[in-house]
Specification:
The complex is a heterodimer.
Chain A lengths: L6 E15 L5 E16 L4 E5 L6 H8 L7 E6 L8 H5 L2 E5 L11 H11 L4 H14 L15 H13 L5 E5 L7 H18 L2 E5 L3 H7 L2 E6 L2 E7 L2 H5 L3 E8 L12 E6 L2 E7 L5 H10 L2 E7 L3 H15 L1
Parallel strand pairs in A: 3-7, 3-8, 5-6, 6-7
Antiparallel strand pairs in A: 1-2, 1-4, 8-9, 10-12, 10-13, 11-12
Helix pairs in contact in A: 5-6
Chain B lengths: L2 H21 L2 H28 L8 H22 L5 H7 L2 H5 L5 H7 L7 H17 L6 H32 L2 H9 L11 H28 L16 H25 L3
Helix pairs in contact in B: 1-6, 2-3, 2-7, 3-7, 3-8, 3-10, 8-10, 8-11
Classes of the chains: A alpha/beta, B mainly alpha.
Chain lengths: 323, 270
């Protein structure tokens, strides 16, 4: 096991055989390639975002990485272990949080759920206490420990779930939509905690999410998957180039004027004295601003960064059109 | 550590959690325990009433029928108490919560079996035991050490056989799912906890057939021996003691079915 590939996937496939009822007794068999030849490597201690639209193959990938699902083809290793073959052995080394499914005990105080984890994973007492104290402090759980889980808010429960997944010192943490449905403050708490965890403990984190702010704030690296294939794997900023995204210069003029003409920029909208100019995200805004300031009666201006969501949506659209 | 030991330990841990969960609603627990006890007791009251009118049932005296009832009732009650929850597996498959069990370092069967462990089911066991003890007092049988030993063997053998059948039923639910639904549960994270599959009927049929056969070994054949009657035509005399053997065979089959079911679930549905 080398440090360059703590999580390793090579040409991993997952094909589901779907039988659909087409008549009263007739069934049609159809193959769905949920994951279609994915390969990537995640070094130990990295924090990676794994994004894609619904049904793109995100969950299926996570389920293969945790050993829940057996891949139909390809090679897959987590910490040197083949997950589907040694699922229970791997379970001691990974933590999983399914955003929409709590593993906490509904009718019992939060503390009881942790006690179960303690015994189920056979965590040494001292280690358990240390980890629990840490989680309680950083996730702000002190006042919730004696509260039955059913009385917790969604955000509190999510924090509780994250703590439960970390008590046995997993080397990898899989998070499936960890901030879904949370309010802004809870989201911030969860993100802060994950950042600390990754920085201090070196826990490798793989995160699927719909909320791109999660990725922006947490992950240097992002992988985009669609139709079971990896479409992008690299730094978040690189998505802009791949997606040929544009930045927007918002210009306020002294009065209403015909659309500004400038090289390398085009006016996308005019509203009274205000105009919106789009220009390639990779280019500097300075020359453009200088030219406009020289030629037009400028009052104010601002630059808007491209919305990552739009970039990704555009990627999907192009991909679908190309198919 | 050997898997069965790990399984039993995990079972204990989870069952204890469920007991504590139920105890948070003490009153409701007491009421369900009571109603459970009464409902199962009703069966027996029916038999009691019948014997008020006639002296025998198919050539069996009241005490003998009570003996048959008591042994089977206790065996089934024990199986239901310990393993009855495996029948909920189908639901867990459909709503995708089975996955949360698969990422834990303990055997899945133990987790599924202990799921929603309900102490109130002990009511059925107690009721069966009461009838059994009562029948033993009433029975006019010449007890031999062998006969006396056969009674607990009957109960424990029956318990094991019923449990094995329950596990088989659960394993069957891995296939009973609509393939597309399972695939959906995988790809979309399984919020499709909606329809109950029509296969539920097939499941009942299977259960019916599979329960009847072992019942003969749990109950009928050994009971005839204890009661000093002749074994059914064609069966050798040792058949009365075959229940542990039958239980072992059933557990091997159940274990295989479970394994195959799990494998098919993990490579998915169908």
């Amino acid at each position: 096991m080398t440090d360059t590939g703590f999580i390793e996937l090579d040409g991993v496939e997952k094909v589901f055989e779907v039988r659909r009822r087409t008549g009263r007794f007739r069934r049609e068999k159809r193959q769905v390639r949920a994951v279609d030849g994915i390969g990537f490597r995640v070094p130990r201690g990295e924090m990676v975002g794994y994004i894609g639209p619904n049904g793109a193959g995100k969950s299926t990938t996570i389920k293969m990485l945790t050993g829940i699902l057996t891949p139909s083809g390809g090679r897959l290793r987590v910490a040197g272990i083949d997950p589907s073959r040694e699922r229970t052995r791997l379970a001691r080394r990974i933590g999983v949080v399914f955003g929409q499914r709590t593993t906490l005990w509904w009718d019992l105080p939060l503390r009881d759920s942790y006690r179960l984890v303690h015994r189920m994973y056979r965590i040494p007492d001292a280690r358990f206490r240390e980890n629990l104290d840490r989680c309680v402090e950083l996730l702000d759980l002190a006042e919730l420990l004696e509260v039955p889980v059913r009385q917790l808010s969604l955000g509190q429960r999510m924090r509780g779930d994250i703590a439960a997944a970390l008590l046995h010192d997993p080397e990898v943490l899989y998070l499936d939509e960890p901030t879904i449905g949370l309010d802004v403050i809870s989201k911030a708490k969860v993100r802060d905690f994950l950042r600390d965890l990754n920085a201090e403990r070196g826990t490798t984190v793989l995160l699927t999410t719909h909320d791109l702010t999660d990725i922006e704030q947490l992950c240097k690296r992002v992988m985009v998957i669609d139709h079971g294939r990896l479409m992008y794997d690299g730094p978040l900023g690189g998505l802009h180039e791949v997606g040929e995204s544009e930045r927007t210069l918002v210009v306020d003029l002294e009065r209403e004027l015909p659309p500004i003409t400038a090289d390398g920029a085009r006016v996308v909208r005019v509203d009274g004295p205000r105009q919106w100019l789009a220009f390639p995200a990779a280019r500097s805004a300075a020359p453009l601003v200088a030219r406009i300031a020289a030629e037009y009666p400028l009052v104010d201006l601002s630059v808007r960064e491209p919305d990552i969501e739009t970039v990704i949506a555009k990627m999907y659209a192009e991909r679908s059109a190309g198919l | 550590m050997a898997e069965p030991v790990a399984g039993v330990r995990a079972y204990g841990l989870i069952a204890a959690m469920w007991v504590r969960s139920t105890m948070t609603y003490r009153f409701s627990f007491a009421m369900t325990l009571l109603s459970n006890f009464t409902a199962t007791g009703f069966d027996f009251v029916v038999i009691l009433l019948m014997f008020g009118q006639v002296d025998g049932l198919g050539g069996f005296s009241f005490a003998e029928v009570a003996f048959l009832y008591g042994t089977t009732g206790t065996a089934f009650g024990l199986a239901d108490l310990v393993l009855g929850q495996v029948q909920r597996l189908g639901r867990r498959v459909r709503d995708g919560t089975l996955d949360t069990l698969l990422v834990r370092p303990v055997p899945v069967l133990a987790q599924v079996a202990a799921d929603r462990f309900a102490l109130r089911r002990v009511g059925r066991v107690i009721q069966g035991l009461i009838v059994l003890v009562w029948s033993l007092v009433l029975l006019d049988v010449e007890w031999t050490p062998l006969k006396a030993a056969l009674v607990p063997v009957m109960v424990i053998g029956g318990w094991l056989i019923f449990s094995a059948v329950m596990v088989m039923g659960a394993a069957f639910q891995f296939w009973a799912q609509d393939g597309s639904e399972v695939a959906n549960a995988f790809t979309y994270g399984g919020n499709t906890l909606l329809q109950y599959p029509p296969v539920i009927f097939a499941q009942d049929l299977v259960r019916g057939v599979v329960y009847v056969v072992p019942l003969a070994f749990v109950n009928w054949v050994p009971a005839l021996y204890v009661l000093g009657r002749e074994a059914p035509a064609g069966l050798p005399g040792w058949a009365a003691f075959a229940s542990p053997l039958v239980a072992a065979v059933f557990w091997v089959v159940a274990g295989l079915a479970w394994r195959v079911g799990m494998r098919s679930y993990r490579s998915t549905g169908s």
